[in-house]
Write a structure and sequence with these properties.
Elements: H1 2-6, E1 20-21, E2 24-25, E3 39-42, H2 46-59, E4 63-66, H3 73-81, E5 85-87
Parallel strand pairs: 3-4, 4-5
Antiparallel strand pairs: 1-2
Amino acid sequence: MRAYIAKGWKVYPVNPKYGEIEGLECFPTLLDLPETPDFASLYVAPAVGIIVLNEIATKGIKKVYVNPGAESDALIAKAKRLGLQPLMVCSIRTIGEDPDKL
């Protein structure tokens, strides 16, 4: 999140356990977001990600970054069945940041 915020992106943290993350309001589900983001970025275990894919599709988010450790064959297959575009890459690297240097 910090890398995206530093680059000027609007970031919506989602986690049902927290009310705030990094000083930002944290939403319990993707369906609670005030708008539809351009993409979602999964930093969760594959078993959790498979469940979250339903919310991603329902919210109308098409592009999903599946970060290292969040991937599984079942998750990728389900994403494709839902009409999502799973991207198997570290989302932080796509904005020119190195997660090892943050």
